[in-house]
Amino acid sequence: MRILVMGAGALGSYFGGYLARAGHRVLFVARGKQLRALRERGLTLLPLEGGSFTIQVDAADTVSPMGVVDLILFCVKTYDTDGAVRLVADAVGESTMVLTLQNGVDSMDSLNAAFGPKAILGGISWVNAAVEEPGVVRHRYPGPLVFGEQNATGSERTQALKKTFMEAGIVAEVRDDIIRAIWEKFVFICAVNGMTALTRLPVGPLLACQESRELFVDIMREVDAVAHQSGIDLADDTVECTLRHMETELPSGVLDTTLGSMYFDISSGRRLELEFLNGSVVRRGRRLGVSTPANGLVYAALKPWIHGRPVLNSV
Ligand SMILES: NC(=O)C1=CN([C@@H]2O[C@H](COP(=O)(O)OP(=O)(O)OC[C@H]3O[C@@H](n4cnc5c(N)ncnc54)[C@H](OP(=O)(O)O)[C@@H]3O)[C@@H](O)[C@H]2O)C=CC1
Ligand SMILES: CC(C)(CO)C(=O)C(=O)O
């Protein structure tokens, strides 16, 4: 397959790296230090099970070395969506699939508007990966790549793509109700990312403390209410199932290391995806008449960090 990774950071490098190792022709679109490292030293992946592998990769700051591709893995942060949409336009042809793995529920609208809904597959990654240093990506947390058609039907192309992922060593699942799956993750991720970024603590101690547990659950309930009001058919016990999954189905000790990507962003002084997580919930709630004080609290507390560590003019 001819594959373009738009945004060769943590997720893009992880998935693109496995696909390139399996023999697919992959172009990694990157910039800055990451681009230089990929070109000079190749891509090194540190898998969860230990060890590492390095592959030489094609990396560029434009799509022109590749032309029209079969698949675009759309992996930029949500605040970079518009620029990335413009950048990949020349790589999208009649049968190109654009699979977004971005968090949140906003970026599919931008992609649909740019390329038409037929081209766009919805996706969520439960894999957690991080750029450890330029060109080096660590896999931190297991999980499937879940994706599917937006129109709630199965398709041959999604089944073929799942086979491609699985053969490359990527655990993948197709869901016919991907929009619902994206909202289910949104319920979870607004609480996990919002609360771990705010408190700089992993999920374990947050759920063990009654007051912070209440805030955590309130965040999820508000997202659930916004989903219902938006016509998304989430199960009535989505919040309870999410909590039960975290507390009883994950291997013991995992919650004490579970931190959202926004935690890592704030800890490193990077920009936050806040507007597309808790901020999006607040704006949608306002529009739909759903009260969202818990998400509002997280949003207000983190907003000074939204462009990175605030600059202080100390005397
Ligand atoms: N990391 C994870 O484990 C998970 C992430 N996600 C979601 O996936 C998305 C991507 O996250 P993640 O991989 O962590 O993000 P990263 O910041 O690690 O990667 C994004 C990369 O895209 C690059 N980029 C952005 N715009 C351009 C451009 N115009 N040209 C070239 N390169 C560009 C960025 O460069 P630069 O650094 O210079 O900005 C960066 O290297 C987010 O929405 C995130 O919430 C979802 C599940 C898990
Ligand atoms: C699901 C989770 C926590 C896994 O990486 C995530 O999406 C994030 O960190 O943003």
UniProtKB/TrEMBL annotation:
<dbReference type="InterPro" id="IPR013332">
    <property type="entry name" value="KPR_N"/>
</dbReference>
<dbReference type="InterPro" id="IPR013752">
    <property type="entry name" value="KPA_reductase"/>
</dbReference>
<keyword id="KW-0566">Pantothenate biosynthesis</keyword>
<dbReference type="GO" id="GO:0008677">
    <property type="term" value="F:2-dehydropantoate 2-reductase activity"/>
</dbReference>
<feature type="domain" description="Ketopantoate reductase N-terminal">
    <location>
        <begin position="3"/>
        <end position="150"/>
    </location>
</feature>
<keyword id="KW-0521">NADP</keyword>
<dbReference type="InterPro" id="IPR008927">
    <property type="entry name" value="6-PGluconate_DH-like_C_sf"/>
</dbReference>
<keyword id="KW-0560">Oxidoreductase</keyword>
<comment type="function">
    <text>Catalyzes the NADPH-dependent reduction of ketopantoate into pantoic acid.</text>
</comment>
<comment type="similarity">
    <text>Belongs to the ketopantoate reductase family.</text>
</comment>
<dbReference type="InterPro" id="IPR003710">
    <property type="entry name" value="ApbA"/>
</dbReference>
<dbReference type="Pfam" id="PF02558">
    <property type="entry name" value="ApbA"/>
</dbReference>
<feature type="domain" description="Ketopantoate reductase C-terminal">
    <location>
        <begin position="177"/>
        <end position="303"/>
    </location>
</feature>
<dbReference type="Pfam" id="PF08546">
    <property type="entry name" value="ApbA_C"/>
</dbReference>
<dbReference type="InterPro" id="IPR036291">
    <property type="entry name" value="NAD(P)-bd_dom_sf"/>
</dbReference>
<dbReference type="InterPro" id="IPR013328">
    <property type="entry name" value="6PGD_dom2"/>
</dbReference>
<protein>
    <recommendedName>
        <fullName>2-dehydropantoate 2-reductase</fullName>
        <ecNumber>1.1.1.169</ecNumber>
    </recommendedName>
</protein>
<dbReference type="InterPro" id="IPR051402">
    <property type="entry name" value="KPR-Related"/>
</dbReference>
<comment type="pathway">
    <text>Cofactor biosynthesis; (R)-pantothenate biosynthesis; (R)-pantoate from 3-methyl-2-oxobutanoate: step 2/2.</text>
</comment>
